[in-house]
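Dig into these lines:

——
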Amino acid sequence: MADLQTKMISPVARVQYRVLYVDTDAGGVVNNGNYLRFLEMGRSEMMRNFAVPYSEIEEMGLILPVTESYIRYKAPAFYDDLIVISTSLADIKRVSCRFHYRITCMRNGRESMLIKGFTKHACVNRQGKLVSFPEDLHKKIAAIHNQKK
């Protein structure tokens, strides 16, 4: 069984997002599949701000597809909520990395946790073959743990 731990590790990148009508179902509740898109927003911003934009990784002929994901739903998000997507790099190995997430929202003057979770990513080339992170890229991503923002 997968390690379902989702502890946030400093530094934590935060992105705000206003829930759009298109994100919700007929009841005005965010559709569960949209949370994976929200996690991608958080991960993309963390990589851009702390390491390297995904576009530069793609220029290297590499992609980082999601190989595993876990979301624990704690409370629903609704149309027009202003959510905060918090992301941390939990681990980087030779051919994979893992990010942890929290999504929260202010409710009645208090922060409410909506979800917690993780995604794991493999480093693959354009042919889909598992490859090691290039040393320079590995160092840039691993250095996230040494940054404070």
